[in-house]
Write a structure and sequence with these properties.
Order of helices and strands: EHEHEHEHEHEHEHEH
Oligomer: single chain
Keywords: Lyase, Metal-binding
Strand order of the largest sheet: 2-1-3-4
Number of strands: 8
Strand content: 15-25%
Radius of gyration: 19 Å
GO molecular function, one term: metal ion binding
Distance between the termini: 17 Å
Shape: elongated
Helix content: 40-55%
Structural class: alpha/beta
CATH topology of the largest domain: Rossmann fold
CATH class of the largest domain: Alpha Beta
């Protein structure tokens, strides 16, 4: 019997965990399979092993592992496969297939543009966007964020710079300072390439509120969150994972 395991990141902030669960529940309703569970990579519970065990107890013989991740990075390449390998030792007869993160998609760039528009502040001459990625040690992460920035710049006809919250450079703080000191831009839209709220988003709010803004106007946009395009994109990844030939 087919099962689906959604693997989200996890957060110390209850609101972030609740947001992830509510979002995944929207997707579950569109997948015609009775055996579906949600788990988390860290901090929140259930963890990956507990999520798999829940599906096995319900009779799953084949499990599609769906990473609720935006881009390929360490969680995708290492953390999730390692957890599944540990479980496979106990249950060698169970087949595990592996889905893909959402990756770089034009429709996700459209969501970013909408998040800027939702501020109801005009993107005029003298405006720029600071696109903020989570960051990782994987070189592909930086390439993907730079591609997304390029796509967004072309779509909105506005200059887009990038920075990162961890592992990559420039850091978020460096991105803010550079924007503060840069001439020619008085309005900066700070656009997080994050799925849900959480510690990282709160740290961005704090840094923006605490910095000396001088004549600059920094506008923090919403994260990608539960936009209908995000729901549809994850739904497609679930269906791909169910029919995937990529085994873990």
């Amino acid at each position: 019997m087919q099962g689906v395991l959604y693997v989200s990141h996890g957060s110390r902030i209850p609101e972030a965990t609740a947001d992830a669960i509510a979002f995944i529940n929207q997707v579950k309703k569109q997948i015609g399979i009775p055996l579906q569970e949600t788990c988390f990579l860290e901090i929140s519970e259930p963890d990956v092993g507990q999520g798999i065990n829940k599906l096995l107890k319900k009779g799953a013989t084949k499990i599609a592992i769906v990473p609720v991740l935006l881009l390929r990075a360490g969680h995708y390449y290492q953390d999730i496969p390692e957890e599944v390998e540990r479980i496979k030792v106990e249950f060698p007869s169970i087949q595990f297939t592996y889905g893909e993160p959402l990756g770089v998609q034009t429709r996700l760039t459209n969501v970013l543009a909408e998040r800027v528009g939702e501020t109801n502040i005009k993107v005029r001459k003298g405006s720029k966007i600071l696109l903020v990625g989570r960051g990782s040690r994987s070189p592909q992460t930086k390439k993907d964020i730079e591609q997304i920035a390029s796509n967004l710049q072309m779509k909105m006809n506005v200059h887009v710079d990038v920075c990162y919250l961890a592992a990559c450079s420039p850091s978020f703080e460096q991105g803010l300072r550079s924007s503060l000191e840069e001439e020619g831009y008085s309005r900066v839209f700070v656009l997080p390439y994050l799925w849900f709220t959480g510690v990282l988003f709160q740290s961005m709010e704090s840094e923006i509120n605490n910095m000396e803004k001088k004549e600059k106007n920094f506008i923090l946009c919403r994260q990608l969150s539960d936009h209908p395009i995000m729901v549809e994109a994850l739904k497609e990844r679930v269906l791909e994972a169910i029919h995937s030939n990529t085994n873990l």
